[in-house]
Amino acid sequence: MNAIPGTLSVPYDSLTPSPPRATSLLRAYRRHDTLFSSSQVQLHARGVLETVDASACDGLAETAREALQRTARKIGRLPLLGAVPFAADAPARLWIPRQAVFAAGQARHGGERRSLPVPLPHCDGVLPQPTAQGYRDSVSAALQRIDAGRVAKVVLSRSLRMQARVSVPWLLERLLSRHPDGYTYAIDLTRNGDSASLVGSSPELLLRKRGAQVLSNPLAGSIPRVADPAEDAQRAQGLLSSAKDRHEHALVVDAVAAALAPHCRKLQVPAAPSLLSTPTMWHLSTRVEGELLDPAASSLQLALALHPTPAVCGYPTVAAQAAIRELEGYDRGLFTGLVGWSDPEGDGEWAVTIRCALVEADAVTAYAGAGVVRGSQPQAELDETSAKLRTMLNAMGLAQVLDVPESAA
Ligand SMILES: C=C(O[C@H]1C=CC=C(C(=O)O)[C@@H]1O)C(=O)O
């Protein structure tokens, strides 16, 4: 099928009969491979055939489509995969791999366990950006802008850079076993010998496209979960009936529906959100489903038409982007961008790049943000980002970094 020895690419639309078992793909994963897993499909890729480094400002979707079609003509059907950053003018990290294998279904924990690194990663120091107080101050500043009518919602984030060595295959396996329904990814970013991977377990689907069918599943409005089942259920119900969170959520759903509408002959938008849970969070969730006018439209092009949604940026977009630039004080990089893949027909799946960490040789940086709207409280937003950070910190065995007294942070 393909001219490159060892290259294997199984078409997405031929997945159902007898695909490679997802668990065996996970077992085959090696450091510097790339893996993207959802409840629908799992993609395992190795090597780089061609990079597509344009920024979203520079016709990224068109450049990607040309690269996919050229590869399909010359070599065979291979997907494009990788990550697009939050900022439209920053370069994407997308490429066509030398080898790609798709499997249907979830990468549940395989029979064969990898040996755990012993001891668990040890953290030699933490650099928060901003500090806890800095984050609360930025939320207060965003609330002033909201009161002044300059913006309705701003998503503010923070990061924790930890001096620690973390094994990517080990982390990936732990993330998959904790939340197999999520969008779990390990995107190899190693270039020129500088080892780096973007690893995460996102609960949020930006866009899935298969034939003429598209689905987006925006999340916004959240509350941390607790161990006690009765209180946990009470929190979920409280979230569902919170006017503040419903408003925060509606801004995202309206923007997603407005961005998809011009591309769709039919669009279904539920009138009210439902609840979605991860191991650490409850979220308000809405599944927006559409039928495309042009089934040949690419999943990347459609995902970029949605990005950045108010779930990661705010509303209105331009005012929220300006507030983030002025208040956040650090570069988000790939965090709050999109991560996923597209095949030569444009079918594909792109998740919102959240609940993630940049894993480098001697350090790991975890990220989390929260939507600020009228009625938000600085301490509650800080606590929400801590709970979101736990997705990665718990999986890495580094949750103790959240217990550091603020004066030491
Ligand atoms: C920006 C993040 O979450 C977004 C997605 C879901 C819920 C969110 C919220 O309730 O604020 C955020 O909009 C993150 O997890 O870092």
UniProtKB/TrEMBL annotation:
Reactions the enzyme catalyzes: chorismate = isochorismate
InterPro entries reported in the protein's UniProt record: ADC_synthase (IPR005801), Chorismate_C (IPR015890), IsoChor_synthase (IPR004561)
Pfam families, sorted: Chorismate_bind
GO molecular function, one term: isochorismate synthase activity
Biological-process GO terms, alphabetical: salicylic acid biosynthetic process
Chorismate-utilising enzyme C-terminal domain mapped to chain residues: 133-388
Superkingdom in the source lineage: Bacteria
Keywords, alphabetical: Isomerase
EC number: 5.4.4.2
Family as reported in the entry's similarity comment: Belongs to the isochorismate synthase family.
UniProt name for this protein: isochorismate synthase
